[in-house]
Amino acid sequence: MIPQEIIRRKRDGGTLHVTDIDAFIAALARDELAESQIGAFAMAVWYSGMTREETVALTLAMARSGEMLSWSGIDRPIADKHSTGGIGDNVSLMLAPIAAACGLSVPMISGRGLGHTGGTLDKLESIPGYGITPHASHFRKVVDEVGCAIIGQTGTLAPADGKLYAVRDVTSTVDSVPLITASILSKKLAAGLETLVLDVKIGNGAFMTSLEEAETLARSLVEVANGAGVKTSALITDMNQPLADAAGNVVELRNCLDFLRGGKVNTRLETVVLAFAAEMLTQAGIAKTLLEAEAKAHAALSSGKAAELFARMVQALGGPADLLDHPGKYLTAAPVQKPVLASSDGWLAACDARAIGMSVIDLGGGRRHPQDKIDHRVGFSDILPLGTEVNKGDRIATVHAAEEASAEKAAADLSAKYEIGDAAPVLPPVIVARI
Question: What per-residue string of b and e applies to 73-100 under the rule 16 or more CB within 10 Å gives b?
Answer without folding.
Answer: eeebbbbbbbbbbbbbbbbbbbbbbbbb
